[in-house]
Amino acid sequence: LDQLQKDELEQYQYIFRKEGYLYTVFGDMVQHLENLNSYKVIFLTRDPRDILVSEYFSLRYSHPTPSLLSNKNQLFSERQQLAKTLPIDEFVLKDGDRLKLSYDNYNKFLIDKHKNIHLTSYENMMKNFPEWLDKILNYCELTLPPDTKHQLIHNHTHRTPIKENKRSHLRKATPGDYKNKLNPKTI
């Protein structure tokens, strides 16, 4: 959904229902969504430097290329080729404008326009998952049975890698890793 233009998104309006849940990346579609004020929106953001580093490793080592029929294939393939041919610092500098545009769109079409957004971060989630989860549940006016909540916390803790694996989708999960991967000039 995050790559769809306004005319393409119209055919998917049925997924934006008054009740239920939708988990998706907003991406470029954020400017085309109507009636966002009638939804509870959780906006999870992340330090853009870490996003770019993570994308570099994902494109280069772990993410499969989308189907040729997918609307994401061409853009993904182009970015994957960049990641495979450029050193990480060059990739980050080249890809940074694309990410900045997404952040600008989030500010312009989501954060500045809609007040019913729970803004949180990947860094908060990783630093203190139980507190982060409580805030999400509270915002959504949801309660979990204690054993389910305990299981979510347990899963989060045990899913976090002990050491880096560049071929895994969950490569390192360490906020601020850009400091270890990028040159100071790039940062």
What would a concise description of this structure say?
By secondary structure, the protein is mainly α. It has eight helices and two strands.
Tell me what the structure shows:
- The chain has 187 residues and is mainly alpha-helical.
- It is 49% helix and 5% strand.
- The chain has helices at residues 6-9, 48-62, 73-85, 88-111, 122-127, 129-139, 146-159, 178-181; strands spanning 41-45, 117-121.
- It has a two-stranded parallel ribbon.
- Helix 2 packs across helix 4 (88-111).
- It is globular.
Main traits of this protein?
single chain; 187 residues; mainly alpha; two-stranded parallel ribbon
Order of helices and strands: HEHHHEHHHH
Number of helices: 8
Strand content: 5-15%
User: Which percent range fits the helix content?
Assistant: 40-55%
| Number of beta strands | 2
Largest sheet: 2 strands, parallel
Give the mean pLDDT. Answer: 86
Supply the helix-strand structural class.
Answer: mainly alpha
Helix-strand blueprint:
Elements: H1 6-9, E1 41-45, H2 48-62, H3 73-85, H4 88-111, E2 117-121, H5 122-127, H6 129-139, H7 146-159, H8 178-181
Parallel strand pairs: 1-2
Helix pairs in contact: 2-3, 2-4
